Amino acid sequence: MSLRFRINLLITVLTALFTAVLIHVMVQDARRSIREEMEGANRATMQLLSTVIRDAQLTAKAGHGNASLLLFLRDLGRVRAHDIRLYDYDDNLLYTSPPSVYKAGRAAPGWFVKLVQPDMPLINLPVAGGNVTVTVDASRSIVDAWDDLKNLMLLILGFVVAVNVLVFFFTGRALKPVSTVLEGLKRMERGEFDARLPRFTLPEFDAVSHTFNGMADALAESHAENRRLALIAEQSGDAISIQDMEGCITYWNPAAERMFGWPTDEIVGRSGMLIVPPERRDEVRAHTEILRGRGIVDHVETQRLARDGRYIEVALTKSPLVDPASGVVIGEICSFRDITEVKRAREAEAELAQNRRLTQVIQSRLEEERHGIARELHDELGQCLTAIKTIGAVIANRTEGTQPEIHQNAETIVSVTERMYDSVHGIIRQLRPSALDHLGLRETLEEAVANWRKLNPAIQCSLDFDGALDALGERINITVYRIVQECLTNIAKHAAATQASVRVSRSGTGRDERLEIVTRDNGKGLGMRDPRDTVRFGLMGMRERTEALGGSFNVESEAGRGVTVRVSIPLVGDASRNGLDAGAAQAAPQSLS
């Protein structure tokens, strides 16, 4: 039922009630007026008839009977609203009043007559030779009252019709904005949050328009924010699920489908315990208690079950889902990040760090062994060779000119001993450059490059230094020396180069201070070499030495354009300068001690 119809119905009902009350008042007034009119007419008629009857009785005593009364009544005709009848002693009707000509042939409805008809008594007046009856006839007055009431009812009916037409018209115009408001609400119901209402003339509807537009703006912003959040959840790389406080899953994003293998339509509405390993269920209950207290479970590394039974290493974050109206925790938002590869990488990194520490130990012990062997060669074998050489020289001097054969053999012993001594010293330099212990890195590298040039005169080799190379520590010194030694050895054996260069530089300050070693050659490059070449193992050894000190090792090579080896070693931390750290010492195998 429309508002316009209700307003018209209300006005009609009110008008009908008013009309009913008015008609009731008018009927009562008409009844009272008719009664008063009839009573007044009755008194006048009675006075007139009393006079006529008294005169008629006098005439009757004179011997004229009722002739004079009958004549008088016929001349009198009808007296207002009274019916006068004259009867003789035998109740024969001698006279009756003529019918009224006023509104002759018309009559009021019976129900109206019953409402207003006055209850007037029949009057009987005795006369000589008979009697006169007077009956009150209010029909004409009732017709007049009915005509007045009918006219009023027609007027009221016209008024009601006119009022309803005017009200319907003006309410239609006044309520015209309602259809616009309803259309706007329907658009909002369909999700068209860009719906807006125009300004209205009526202040009430204008206020509705202003409030509606404000609400639409808020809903549009909220809807856009919800869409952004939903899009984030849908496109998130992390698995996201929402559970109620009974543990039933109510939301499951695509990443969760991919991670756990459960389609959304199969897991929504089911218990979240489906993805919890049995041994982790107490953990879940503990998390639920934390969330009930509005706490947050942040980045807990745990395990969950995939649909196929696989255990997945996850980083779990849980937050309470709070009803904004009541402030009650109604669920939990769970975020899962697969950290299986991260944990593997972490374990591999830990293993790599362990290997690096072991490499440091091995390299350190290897250098110690080399140092010991070099010392033994120098102290023991060197002295023995010196003694042999001395004895041979003495024999040669004593047998010179007297025993030519013995002299010749002694000279041969001295010559062989000298060559053996030089070879031993060469081996000692390979095992442990003594210059590192007495001079320093710069002088040791200069001596090593000078000796290399003597052995490889066909290759031009340059050596450059930049920055202070003092006080770098035993580990760095021996590492740099071994890297340069290995690079020069590879160039001499495998590169087929004519030019080579070595540059050692120290740069940066503070935590950015680094030592860099760059070697280049113009040889055939790594691409042209035999994969079984021992240079590969040399590169591996250099890389292990560099990474053991936390540095970076890089090889650049193109076929026919030589090889460039770049090594960068950080100079921060006591461990990089002064021997092994505690972890490396603990990692040292007992077999090397």
Write a structural description.
It is a single chain. The protein is an alpha+beta fold and 593 residues long. Helix content is 56%, strand content 17%. The protein has helices at residues 3-64, 67-76, 110-116, 139-174, 176-189, 203-235, 254-260, 264-267, 281-292, 340-399, 404-431, 434-438, 441-455, 474-495, 535-548, 582-587, and strands spanning 82-88, 93-96, 123-127, 130-136, 239-244, 249-252, 297-305, 311-322, 329-338, 460-466, 499-507, 514-521, 552-557, 563-570. The protein has a five-stranded antiparallel beta sheet with strand order 6-5-9-8-7, with helices on both faces. The longest helix is centred in the first third of the chain and has 62 residues, at 3-64. The protein is rod-shaped. Mean pLDDT is 81; it is low at 528-534 and 574-593.
Short description:
The protein is α+β, with helices and mostly antiparallel strands. The chain is 56% helix and 17% strand. The protein has helices at 3-64, 67-76, 110-116, 139-174, 176-189, 203-235, 254-260, 264-267, 281-292, 340-399, 404-431, 434-438, 441-455, 474-495, 535-548, 582-587, and strands at residues 82-88, 93-96, 123-127, 130-136, 239-244, 249-252, 297-305, 311-322, 329-338, 460-466, 499-507, 514-521, 552-557, 563-570.
